[in-house]
Sequence to fold (177 residues):
Amino acid sequence: MPTISETSLSLLSQSDPPTLPWTFIAILLVIGVAAAGFYYASPTRLTGVLVSALINVENAYLASEENGLAHSDDVDIEERLTVLQLEVCTFCDTSLRVSLSPIFPLSVLYDMFNIRRSIAVLRCLREVRSLGTHIEIFHEAQRREITSTSEASSQCPLTKRASISLRRRDTARSAST
Fold:
């Protein structure tokens, strides 16, 4: 009967399980998360988000103009909107220039890691969204003012109070269903 020496038994018991596949998977996961982070912070993707936000702000402004609601600081809003449109066009032109570069893969990588441009796009995105919020708030305030003046002239105070309480009951009932 063959005998197994003590040294070969000790070598078999001391062998660690292979950790190479788990290490490789962890490295791939870290690289994937980093690549996703760079993609979401890249100026090219943020420029697309900025363009869609600007379109929403323009639509809100046009809707308030179509409804006949005049802005008290209309000139200021138009100026800000014009300046933001020019900034967005500049960012779009820069993104287009990068994509048409003769050294395309390197320019895309450079653009992906261009933190200054990402911050500039994010700053412009914040301004566009704040202008959109300002337009919507002003639009709602004007609409409520028009509604309250028309209700005040057409109803007596007792019927106005009754209509408010009825609205509250209707909203509670529709929220519960």
Notes: Confidence is low (pLDDT under 50) at residues 165-170. The chain has one domain: 33-164. The radius of gyration is 31 Å. The chain is about 85% helix and 0% strand.
